[in-house]
Amino acid sequence: MFRRSGVPVASWLHALAACLLIFLCAPSASAVAPVAVLTIDGAIGPANADYVVRGIARAARDGSQLVILQIDTPGGLDTAMRDVIKAILTAPLPVASYVAPGGARAASAGTYILYASHIAAMAPGTNIGAATPVQVGIGPDRGARPPIGKDGAGKDDSTAGAMARKQMNDAAAYIRGLAQMRGRNADWGERSVRESLSLPAGEALKLQVIDLVAPDVQALVKALHGRKVQVLGRELTLDTAGAPINSIQPDWRTRALSALTNPSIALILMTLGIYGLMFEFMSPGAVAPGVIGALCLLLGLYGLQLLPVNYAGLAFILLGIGFMIGEAFLPSFGILGLGGVAAFVAGALMLIDTELPDYGVPVGLVAAVAIVSAVLIGATASIALKTRRRAVFGGPSDIIGSIAEVLDDTAGGEGWANVRGETWRVTSATPLRRAQTVRVVGRSGPLLEVVPAEHP
């Protein structure tokens, strides 16, 4: 057997094989499936729902073992909330909703999402609850809730009260079903809906509304190691010890959708679109105002159709804009325009229910748009009034007495002359010279009668 420095070659080979084995086995500790983190910060709307739905699907494709949905929301739209819950219930991997950081809340729609998640967690100093639904519709009792008795039933027998009770019972049954699915406190969830109750993190843990309290995401991931969860009928055991944490940030699509579904942005886009088209109609061929206006109008309408719009408010806005456009073409001298501004303000104020968190149209924005519209209408009416007082230019009587310049020599009879920048056929009883100044003294159709300017 060959030797080198007194050590057998076989010993070297065995040592090398052992090192390779250790090297190949070492990555197993770091080969733990990652944990994906999604963040909802603000009102839950179409943009947030799209972000969560696509984020969960992306985490599943990337091989993540867990999705942590970090929440800080005052609530949001019912349709968007249900889209998020459907994505959680049908997810192929567990989803943990985590109310954080300290001072955050999971109010209204956030409470339902927390109940629907496989794991519910909160950071110290956060709260959950106030899950009473807010109705969005048309009528004087929009958002009204019937009085609640000790048995939880409403006492208002009116149609509005019946609709409110129907919505209340539906929301209570929804959160109770989610609580029973996840083994959480169903009674408190129903009371949160019917009585708008809220809980801080510590009490929520005692009442089994949530599963655990953790100060941050890293602590939450560490605490979940070895936890068993049911996902689509099968039991999974989380192996989060040392798992890498990947934060999935909103992409350009989510940011664009968030901007378009902001009621203020949608209202501004729709207003700019209408004014762009109006300027295009007033000055045909300008092209740019028409193109920009059409794009803004379509984007604004797209944003509004994703929101729970009050159609009475939308009708008022369209009526007001129609009146303002009519002011540019009809000689109403401000009457149509002022009526349009009033209708626009009324419609903008009732367009979105202001009880929905972060979805009301600010009064300051409505006032600013109304003032700008009034200024434009005032300028249009002022121009119309000045035009009305101005004498008619170019008529048969106006051209009489005008000074003209002869364009060629005439020995009597007819010739041509430049009258106010236009070429006219002229006739004179006296011979005229080229470039001679003459005065128009009569008109017979397209023929002007002229005399020398020095003629008395």
Helix content: 40-55%
Q: Report the end-to-end length measured between terminal Cα atoms.
A: 141 Å
Kindly provide the name of the CATH class of the largest domain.
Alpha Beta
CATH architecture grouping of the largest domain: Alpha-Beta Complex
- Count every helix, treating DSSP H or I runs of 4 or more residues as helices: 14
Mean pLDDT: 80
Shape: elongated
* Strand-residue proportion: 15-25%
Give the CATH H-level superfamily of the largest domain. Answer: 2-enoyl-CoA Hydratase, Chain A, domain 1
Major sheet attributes: 6 strands, parallel
CATH fold-type name of the largest domain: 2-enoyl-CoA Hydratase, Chain A, domain 1
Nearest-angstrom radius of gyration?
38 Å
The neighbouring-strand order within the major sheet is: 10-7-5-4-3-13
Low-pLDDT regions: 1-5, 23-30, 136-157
Would you count the extended β strands for me?
Answer: 18
Report on the structure:
With 456 residues, the chain is of the alpha/beta class. It has four domains: 1-31; 33-251, 2-enoyl-CoA Hydratase, Chain A, domain 1; 262-389, no CATH class; 403-452, Nucleic acid-binding proteins (OB fold (Dihydrolipoamide Acetyltransferase, E2P), Beta Barrel). 46% of the residues lie in helices and 18% in strands. The protein contains 14 helices and 18 strands. It has helices at 9-25, 46-61, 78-89, 109-116, 159-182, 186-195, 201-206, 217-223, 252-260, 263-282, 288-305, 311-329, 335-350, 363-389; strands at residues 3-4, 7-8, 35-41, 66-72, 95-99, 105-107, 119-122, 127-129, 198-200, 212-213, 228-231, 234-237, 245-247, 403-406, 413-419, 422-428, 437-444, 447-452. The strands form five sheets. The chain has a six-stranded parallel beta sheet with strand order 10-7-5-4-3-13. The protein has a five-stranded mixed β-barrel with strand order 14-15-16-18-17. Strands 6-8-9 form a three-stranded mixed beta sheet. α10 runs parallel beside α12. The protein is elongated, with a radius of gyration of 38 Å. Mean pLDDT is 80; it is low at 1-5, 23-30 and 136-157.
